[in-house]
Amino acid sequence: MSLHAAIDDALRLADRGTQTSAVHDVVRNGLRDVAPNVEVRTTDYFTHTFIPDLVLSWGPEKRRQERHVHLRFVVSDEAFLSEVDFLASTEPMFLGLLDTAPIPDVSAGPNDGTHRAGTLVTQSASLDALHEGRTRDQRTVTATREVVRGGRGSVGPERAARLVNAYHDSLHSIERLSQDEGRAENSTRVALSLLNEVLHPGQFSNVERDLRSRWIRQGGDPFSFPGATDWDPQALTHEELGEVLNALLDSGRPLAKDVWSRNAWFLSAQELAELLDKDRRGGALNQLAAALLPNWTAQWVWAETFEFPLQPTFDWLITGKTLAVEIGDMRAAFRDDGRRFKDKGPTDDPLPSIDEMEHVLRDSNIRAASFQTAAEDITYSYRASGEQSLYERLMQIFEPSQRHELRLSEVHTLVPSRDDVAVIDLDRQVIDLDKTPTPVSVLIRLAMRYFHHADYDYAAVEEFLRTGKPPLAESLPEPSS
Amino acid sequence: MIQYSVTAEGLHELGREGVLLIRRWLDSTARFSMSHTAYDLDSQSRPYTQVRVEQLNGGFENFDLVGDIRDERGKKGNTIYVECKNYTSAGNQGVLYSEYLATCYSAFAAKYKALGHPPSAEFMWITTHPFAQTNFTKLTEECSIAKACVVEAHVARLGGEDYNAELGKALAARLWLVVVNDRMLDEMIMGDDLRAAVMTRMVQMGTA
Question: Quick check: A47 contacting B, CB < 8 Å?
Fold first, then answer.
């Protein structure tokens, strides 16, 4: 039964109290149908001059929004417009119960219509048209809900039907975005134009965002979406941008590198991981990372080493809102804020001896190193001096047996190609850049030097970082520990 | 401003816009809440039965407005039927008012007969101009009702039943007579902010 027919039945009840309750129940159900998640509360007033029949509310507790619904027998004559003017400051919804005559244009009111700008005048038959659209395609509820929350102007049944039909066209053409982007662009432009006329800016942006995210989930570049305003990813909240980037990552379509760089170039590695807000690994994330890696810096690295994988691993991942890269048996996580890494305990792996780290200690970038004895738990620290590398100095200080016994626990090294010093804690596998933002690409190489056990083809690693494509397994040498 | 429309019968009806202004004024007192007007039509383009009262003779009469009287805390009480008149002079209101009293009595008695006790109904005559000034204070007394019911043109409304003075007294206590003018209707209405505050308070009190 249509809402219009149900209201007609309810209005036939002779007792005024019963009639009021019945009409309120029917209208409440009708509104809930096209606007789920909107709380609908009835009052015990019926068609009162200023007390609403129903109160709609939605949103989180601290930012709860309300809209009053005033039921009216007549919404199609000039006398009704004085009622609109009387209540327009509250931006309410007027709902004509059985009146199906054309609604006058409420936008042509006092002050060039601005006084009535937030008022919606509609009819039960219009809600039936919205209901029909929602029944035909459940996804249309995004549009119908926003009409209830923030519709404005006169929305008769024909206009309501045009809105849902245009929304359907847009949804269906976006589904076929990869086949006919031009059609999707046209139908979406038409739908948004119609909705822009009848929605408050806030509600319109909700609908626009819904269509845009569908567009993005189909692999469409947000910059080519025919929105009412130019796409500016920097103007979005982190939550909104997170939705966009997650949708692009989940689209399943290969995207051009510049799609990522245009939409997320301004995000740090940590910001990106936090706004994506869910664990994910590889696939499109590798493509995104390849595009954005030149922009990323971090101040802390935490490395983990695993068993040698059966298959060589080359993946970017987000875990616990932290960006990380997994290459072979090493995972390195990057952050600007090291608090996350503070509680990381010492690794179970034994610390390497001086002999085992010869290749590192010969590096002229090493400024100092600390060693521990296994038995006495005493720490020795040495600095490089003059032209002599630290390793050469250690050769002079320690006997071969000591070089085998002493374990390297900490290294202070110049960051390659930079003047900054990184402190590398080999026990906790943490690199501290002393609050100096350092390119993530540099940090990956640094972490691999200290924490990567397998001897992989570094050219393959460079290729992965540049393209986001894992090298083919057969092209890689066998790892050796 | 009230927009007037005089019907073919010359009953000086206010028209829908004028009735809506009266209604707005009544609603704004918060002691009345009107729900139906005679201009609200059902799907067969007829006024709703809620504005209609049955007479002792089986006939029906429509009022311009119907709604509830509310107590100090906004709780619903008696139903009130309102007749709105537009005059720029006293005119023939005295005659029409007499007919109105007979109509009210007949409706009140018919409901009393059906229920076995006085009905929860009250009646209000709202006019834009005073009338019967020499007798004005008696217009809502039982004697005026009794007089109206014996006027030859009104007797038929009683459907052959005798006038009951006790019932007339009960009705007299439920008659309202109000003279309004444009200024009352325009300037005795709360502004947006005050109205919003009243509405919020009424919601808090659980009456809205």
Answer: yes
